[in-house]
Amino acid sequence: EIIIKDFYLEDGITEYVNKQDVNATITWENEKVRYYCITEKDDSNNCKWKETSGKSVTAKYTLSENDGEKTVYAFLKDKFGNISPSKIDNIILDTLSPVENSIEINDGDEYTTNKDVTLTLTSIGATKMCISNTDNCDNWEEYSLSKEWSLPTGDGEKNVYAWYKDDTGNTTEYVMDTIILDMEKPTGDIVINNDETYTTSKTVTLTLSATGANKM
Questions:
Q1: For a tag on the chain, would you pick the N or C end, based on fewer CB atoms within 10 A?
Q2: Do residues 180 and 140 make contact, with C-beta atoms less than 8 angstroms apart?
Q3: Residue 7 host element (H or E)
Q4: Model pTM greater than 0.90?
C-alpha cells in the first residue's frame, strides 16, 4: 500500500503567498514509489506524473490564477501503477497590494507653527506601514489610523511619505502629503508721520513694514 506520510506547501506554516510559484514537499515510506503528482484536482486521472526516487521530494508547483484559497492535492504511484490516496494542503494566494491609500498632515492644514504634527493614515488591506520624511522607506511598523510625527527642523515646505503593506508582503507605492512649517515670528516696524517728533493733529500717518506677516 502506498501512503503519503506528509504533504505541505512552502514551510507548512505559511498561510498566505503573493506569488503563484510555491514549494511543495511530499514524504513517504514505501521504497517502491516512482512517481508523484501535484494538482488542484482531487482526481489522479488528471495527473501529469513526474519521476522521483528516495522517500521525499520537494518541487515547484504553480498555483492557478486568481487570488483566493487554493486546495492542492498530492498523489504517489509505484512502478506497478498503484496510486496512493490523495493528501491535501491549503494556502491563500494574495497578489494584490492594499488600496485606497492616503496620508494627511494635521487634517489637511496648509501651515503649521509646530514641527510635531498628527498624521491621519488610511489604507484598505494594510497590516504594516512605513512613514518617512524622505522618499525612502526603512522602518516598517504595525498599521494604525493615526500617528504623532516630527517634521525636519527648519521653516519651509515639508513632505511626509507613507507606504503600506499586507500580511503577504504586497507593498504599495508611496503616498505623500505636504505642509509648510513656519516657526519664525514676523518682524516689523512702525513709523508715525515720517518719524516726526511732534504733531498738531490727532490724525497721523503710519508707515508699516514687516517680514513674514500677512495680518496686522
A1: N
A2: no
A3: strand 4-9
A4: no
